[in-house]
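Neural cell adhesion molecule L1, pasting as requested.
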Amino acid sequence: MGTKPRQQVGSRGRSPPPLTPLFALLLVLPITPGQAAIHIPSNYHIKDFKEPPVITSQPEPITAFASDDITLTCEASGKPTPTFRWVKDGKELDPSNNPDLSVSPGSGTFKVISEDNPINHYSGNYTCYASNELGTSVSNQVHVRTESPPTQQKEKKVKIKAEEGESVILQCNPPESIDPPNIHWMDKRLRHIELSERVTQGRDGNLYFSHVVTADSRNDYTCNAQYLKARTILSKEAITLTVSPSNSVARSRRPQMMRPSGSHSSYHVLRGQSLALECIVQGLPTPTIQWARKDGELTASRTSTENHNRLLSFGEVSESDAGQYQCTANNPQGTVIHTYSLDGMCMSSVWIAGVNSELYAPGETVELDCKADGIPRPQLTWSINGVPLSEIDKDSRLSLEAGTLVLKDVKFGDTAVYQCKAQNKHGSILINTYVYVIELPPQILTVDGKTYGVMEGQKAELECKSFGSPRPEVSWESEDSGSALLLSSPRVTLATGGSLQISNVSHGDGGLYTCYLPESNVSISAELKVLNQTVIVSAPLDLRVQRGTAVVFTCIAKVDPELDHQLLWRRSGQKLIHSANDKKYTFEDPDLTVADVQDVDEGVYTCQIITRLDMAEASGSITIVDRPDPPSQLQIFNPMDRSVTLSWTPGDDHNSPVLEFVVEFEETEVETDGWEEIMRVSGDTHRTQVSLKPFLSYRFRVIAINDVGKSDPSAPSNPHSTPAAVPDHNPLGVRSVSVDPDTLVITWEEIDRRNFNGPNFQYKVLWRQVVGSGPSWQYNFTTAPPYEVPDVGTFTAFDIKVQAVNELGSAPDPEPTIGYSGEDAPKDAPMVVGANVLNSTAIEVTWAAIDKTTVRGHLLGYKIYLHYHGLVVKHHKEHRRKVGKGRRHVEERMVVQTGPNEEKKVVGGLRPYSHYGVSVTVYNAKGEGPPSDPLPIQTPEGVPSPPVFLDLKSHSEREMMLHWGPPTHPNGVLIGYQLRYQQSESPQENIDDPTITHRTLTNLDPHSQYRFTLAGRTGVGVGMPIIKEGFTMLDGVPAKNISLLAGETSVNLTWVSQYRHMNVDFHIQYRNKNGHGSWKQTDKLNLAQSFYQLHDLEPGSVYKLDFIFSNKSFWKTEVRTHGTGMEAVSANFATEGWFIALVSAVVLLLLILLILCFIKRSKGGKYSVKDKEEGQVDSEARPMKDDTFGEYSDNDEKRTASQPSLCDDSKLCSEDTHLGDYGNSHSAKTEVFMDESLASQYSAVKDGAEVQERSPLNPASATPTNHGLPSSVAILD
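Structure tokens follow.
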């Protein structure tokens, strides 16, 4: 509900005196910060609120001619509606009482409507006053100027004569007016006189000729004056100009000023006005004009030139334009300068925003500060409601200090409109501001029940805006503490506007808060929710990539669940926006993908997670990197015999610092494989010394390497050659590689060509015999290894060495090494060869050391030969046959090598109970010597190898039959076997007959698993065993877990046989439960089948099933087939006539078919290929296999020659008989089981010569007694 304020109409002041013309000034009227001005908020509820008058539309100065309308505008707002009055030239003017004036209703605007009075009757200064009960507002004083339209005066004709080359001025002199005319020089055809640098129109309207030419002669130079406001054009009398030729044309004249005159002039201009500086000169030839500012730069943004550079214009003059401007005119004869000074600038009015009228509470102090500026400085005066302060009774509460009006302890009667007036010689200007003293009841303006969400750690501010006059006091309390306790916290502050500020908020600060006005019963509540700060947990990275690649920035943030958030991406501060046409950026939160990165994509990429309460941001960057540019300016410095200094200038590293430089070289005088690396230096090295080799010509280049890759090579350096020198070193690896006897072959590692160090490089080969030759050396020269010395004896020791030499000299003398001439095979065999038998598979062979002089070479070792001669005793015929057969092939031999210093060796891996022959040889690199005499030895008997196999078969619960094969290697005389069984190592049974290969064990425990161990025996002992585990077979039991699955005409049966139980036979009896039909019985079924199908059943019928084992029923059940059952036939259809006729017809057809078959067969023999092909052409029932043609087999011809089988047309032999009903049944699930016995029986039937292939689902194929034919149930039912 609105509240009526206490208001009082102001009574200060009276009608103001007249005001002087406007002047240029700067007026500022701010409110002092210490004042408590009242601003009524828009949501404060108040009724009948009065407002002082405020002029909203000011009158404007008018310049009028006789035919013009005169309208003075004055509009104002206020409550009550203001009344208006006018003052003209200091006297009251009431437009409503003047019949010549028309006043707009409800405003102060009036219009002159009478045309009888002369227009100059309305000239003068006008001021508008708008008043209501709260005060009076005063408008600006405006001046109305009136004038009669200018008229054409009678003039004399003007004729001007001049010589060619003289300067001429054609005067215009239009009639004067308050509206300056626009001047146009034209000819009699109303065409403008063409202006140029030579012919110029001045701002005074005159036409200036810098110099005239004969072509300027004419009699129709007409000046036309256009008065826009008077809507009048006056044409002056035409001027005749006659230019006569002159002999002095060839003499040029220096420039002279035509307008302005003299060398200096000054301007005083008001700020904001436009200004034009003119410079018109005479001279021959026509001078050129240039403008310059002497005390600064002449900028195009402040000035412009016009009229062929004769005019310098300023759009709006400001203080910065004050200074000196120079016009310079030049021609070949000289220069003339004129200087303009802009100083003493008076500034036009500039109002500062924020100068508003204010409301105040009683008792407050008001300071109205009025400041103005201008040249000369204006004088300030104050008025109240239009009455000058000097004419108002003095009040101690009112004071004036340096233009500031101070009003203390304001009362309701001080409500008024105050005017500040500034005046100097250029005029005056006035501004209104009101002081409104009012008392308003307190109200809380903030909405009740507002919820504030603040992030943890931030500053919370709970609003409680109030309003009243005087200003009301505000207090806060929380649900946990009162006002005093709440405000005592150092983190809690009560702001000036009534807001409660809590710094560094935590979750404990959340809750309900109450704002109230202690002097009233007004209060509101506010809820504070403290939320978790938004934190970026995975920020974008600083990426260094190559051009053309795609990069992905990821920005993952943790946001409070109560806040929705938005992810924005920026590049270098600019927001990135998805565009369907531009695939550069792909936004898939939380990723930003930048495709095909180029140089323009470099920059900082910032992700911003924005919520309504906070924002978190993190930045990454893209830096384009690439291989470095190649180094440049590669130069060679300080060349020496074996080194040079290289320097280079690095190329651009493309944002990836150079890690190292690779220095490469190339030989220039020989063909090589190309450039080779010579050294590497760090990336901050740009100069290095390179070691060189003598007698080579080099070129160098440098490659830079950074993280991206290698640069292109630098341009190669100029070639540099090193001088020759003696060899530095001799070849390495000097040795003898003699092969043939009586020959010494010396070889070494060749020296690289780059180490020759000079021309005519050779090797000097030196040798001398170690014994008997003395210190003298023999030598020879060669260019490459090896070097061969003949006739030196077999395996003779020599000192050998090789020295590098070239044209300049030799390398240092090398140290000699020992070498030998070629070897020959040893001459003698080892002596005193013996052998000691260690066991059945190993012996120790001994011999005496060989005389090394007989070896004729380096002794490498000995070789022991063992020749196998067979077993000692043959224990049965089979083994004798095998041994004899082996001897007829290859005799076994074993070779064992030893070192050169060994004289005995243990040899293992021999066969027990066998004959061997042992011999020993000595060998060197050339070969073996003769063997020693064979030494016969015999190995003792050993234990046999394991039996070859062990099979277990059980036919009852307590018996197990074992079958095995004898050991492959008896290793002696096999005397029997050792058999162990049961889980423990006993009982044990010895089988003394080695020919027995089976044994049946009885009285076994049917509930135990046995472990059988079988090993052969010789006289030495028991051999390695063969081990196998097994169970006895339990007696068979009927099938269990029988499942039935019914179709329309069949029933599928499946069962599971018992583990370890013998397979037994059973059969099934079944019949229709509806009463007709007898019991039917299947053939014998075996547990191993696990599947059977009953065929040819009636749909929708219930069948009884009885499972029989050993003539006893072990399970009975019933099953219903799917489909709709047939109604029972009351009579026996077998006695019906139609049935007898049908059977007779079938028999007749079969008889005819048999006769045709016999006739066809009686034609005899096999069909020819031609007949067969013709027969196959007509038969669609025998398609060609694999799309082949013309290929036949013997089986095809035999089948063709024999009598055709009735199975070709009979359902009894077709696969559809058994599988059709099964496939067409409504079974929901089909399972097929087939164990090993069923598979073997099925495959046995399939191998028959004339039996067709059958499916594993056909039970007949699994029953051997049916010989592959369908079961009787399937045929007869």
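Note for the archive: Residues 1089 and 1238 are 5 Å apart (CA to CA).
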